[in-house]
Structures are given as C-alpha cells and as structure tokens.
Amino acid sequence: MDLGIAGRWAVIGAASRGLGQGCARALAREGVNLVINSRSAEALEETARSLREINAGIAVRAVAGDIGDDAIRAAILEACPQVDILVTNNGGPPPGDFRDWTRDDWLQAVEANMLTPIELIKATVDAMAARGFGRVVNITSGAVKAPIDVLGLSNGARSGLTGFVAGLARQPQLASLNVTINNLLPGAFDTERLRGGLDAASKASGEDVARIREQRLAGIPARRFGSAEEFGEVCAFLCSQQAGYLTGQNILLDGGSYPGTF
C-alpha cells in the first residue's frame, strides 16, 4: 500500500535505537524526509547513515541532545523545513516504589514524558492545520492501559499526556483540517531496554535469564516479543494519508496481553 506521505517531513524522538528507530526506518521506506533525535550523537549518526541506505532519495538530519531541553527542541524544529509528522518518544523514568520518590523525581518524569511532548505538539499542530495535513503519534506505554505497580512515575506522567491528547485531538480546528493525534502503546518489544530489564531481573533473583524470558513470554498470547520493525509499520500507517479519520485513539500493541474488552 502506498501510504501517500512520500516527500513529507517528520520529526522523531529517541530514534537512534529501539522503537523510535523502527518508526524512522518505516517512514524512510515510505519516502519521508526525517529529522531524528537522541541523546547519543554517535548512535544517532550511525542511525542516520542506515536510514540514508534504506532510501537514498530522502533527507535525513540528526540533532543530538536531550529533547527535554528548550534549546535542543528549538534546534530540532529549526532543522525541519515543515513538520508534517511528529513522533514523540522519550525514555521512560526508572521503576521503583513511590515511597522512595522525591518531588524532583516526579517533576523529571512529568517533564520528560508529558510536558516535552506537549511542547512539541504546541509548536507544530497549528502550522499542520494551516497546510491541511498533520500526523502526531505519541509513543507512550501499554502501562497507560494496564498500569504496572513499579512503574508509577511512568504511569502517572504518560497518563497525563493521554488525558491531554484525548481533548486536544478532538478540537474541530485540528480534526476538521486533517490533523490527527494518536497514541501508540507498546507492550513487550524485543529492544535493548527489555533485554536490560530481563538481565536486571536475573541478577536480582539469581534465576537464569532464559527462564525469566520464558516466564515473561508465557503471559503473552502471541508467545513472542514484538519487533521494532512491526511497531514502526503501525506507526507509519497512523501517519498515512489513509488514516485521516483515525484520531484521539490509544492503539495498544502487546500481542494480546491486555485481558480487557475495552
């Protein structure tokens, strides 16, 4: 299927690896020009090179730094001639017990996973509406749908973003002008973050990491972890011309793990 977005410009956060990179690769295959960001300049440049190899006909610009920093966000937007597609993505806060978290811990989580995406959306959606096309995809977490007790910082901050988007996406001045805003909620994907979590659980429990992996897979009806590649393809569809009637939704990709009807 031709998604009808060749020649568009996209901004993608946390794109040097994992799910962000999966989204960048999928959009590159569709002929979308990219401005990518991550904290690691070296990893980001390597990703930029690989994206140019996927499609030599697109422009790929890399802006390294913490996307939560005002100056870095300004540099990202300056590097993009016009933002037609915005994929917000940022690393999640660490797990733990809420009794141990300070006010600063909460402020950092809200800044990274709620306010930073909102600032990027604020900076781009009105121009999207003026041009008659815009796609915003926020990569959040399956924990928004089914909260995980040790991920309270993430649960809180990302749920705040979800509530904000639910109202914003339905503003007629955006939705009627072909600007859609959706959230993409990953479950367990085979990324460095997941593998690191399995290793940490193994060290903490003394149990073999392969056993912990099998236990985790047993709770997923698909009996496998997702791939960044397939996550990126779903993201690309949400950014497509064909997805213009899909807005304000939380799309859960978790291999069937969530047990609810709604």
From TrEMBL:
It holds the Pfam family adh_short_C2. InterPro entries: NAD(P)-bd_dom_sf, SDR, SDR_fam. It comes from the Bacteria. Signal peptide: none annotated. Belongs to the short-chain dehydrogenases/reductases (SDR) family. This is SDR family oxidoreductase.
